[in-house]
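Dear H.,

Thanks for agreeing to be a second pair of eyes. The structure we're designing against is below in token form, covering all 245 positions.
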């Protein structure tokens, strides 16, 4: 029995040495108990050690990131890129997201909209994505979309859009000359902060010659946006998603 315990100890230690680049130093630095299990397997990622400030996130035995005042909890890849977004808890207990940016992804930016929602934008590859902190996880919103953007938040809700398509339209100016403009079509997506599910407003179609749409909450139920021609529209969202209010 004693020999079995010794063998199990060496097997576990060997696994740690194989998985962690810093090897035995990390094993000696952090003690383990029921809330600090050592390696957390989030295949293909690993977090070590669990629930500790200054822990690290690894991929293929390579350290992606570690910050002394952060406890890393969860991670996801950014689709169609080589970068990652991870969830952390800071020394004051507040949750946040941050990016591990790969140099191959070029001109990529990542910023916070509010404590729950974050925006990723990559102008080199034309990718825009929205991320959310929900139930202690990092959640990419509608990850199959390449143009998720324009997040606007209120106390109980959030809304964003993606571009469903574009087309060239020929018009005539005041001088009688024809010219061509590209018109973009947007679809809006509504979130109730209490729900995980996203409500896509398929019956609400917005078009403009600009590929950007600035959304703004007017009150608890309505949002507004301004088109390139100066026209301002206000939409009561209860008409399109009554169960979300």
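And this is the sequence the design step returned. I haven't edited it by hand at all.
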């Amino acid at each position: 029995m004693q020999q079995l315990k010794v063998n199990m100890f060496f097997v576990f230690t060997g696994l740690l040495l194989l998985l962690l680049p810093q090897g035995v130093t990390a094993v000696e630095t952090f003690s383990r108990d029921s809330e600090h299990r050592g390696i957390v397997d989030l295949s293909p990622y690993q977090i070590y050690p669990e629930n500790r400030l200054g822990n690290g996130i690894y991929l293929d035995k390579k350290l992606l990131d570690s910050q002394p005042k952060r406890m890393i909890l969860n991670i996801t890849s950014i689709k169609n890129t080589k970068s990652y977004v991870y969830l952390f808890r800071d020394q004051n207990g507040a949750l946040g997201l941050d990016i591990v940016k790969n140099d191959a992804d070029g001109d990529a930016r990542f910023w916070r909209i509010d404590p729950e929602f974050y925006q990723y934008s990559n102008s080199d590859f034309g990718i825009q994505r929205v991320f959310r902190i929900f139930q202690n996880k990092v959640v990419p919103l509608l990850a199959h979309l390449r143009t998720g953007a324009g997040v606007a938040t209120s106390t109980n809700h959030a809304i964003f859009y993606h571009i469903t398509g574009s087309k060239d339209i020929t018009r005539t100016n005041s001088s009688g000359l024809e010219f061509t403009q590209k018109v973009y079509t947007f679809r809006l997506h509504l979130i109730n902060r209490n729900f995980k599910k996203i409500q896509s407003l398929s019956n609400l179609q917005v078009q403009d010659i600009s590929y950007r749409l600035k959304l703004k909450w007017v009150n608890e139920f309505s949002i507004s946006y301004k088109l390139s021609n100066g026209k301002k529209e206000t939409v009561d969202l209860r008409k399109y998603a009554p169960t979300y209010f």
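Two observations from my side: Residues 147-245 form one domain. The chain has two helices and 18 strands.

Warmly,
E.
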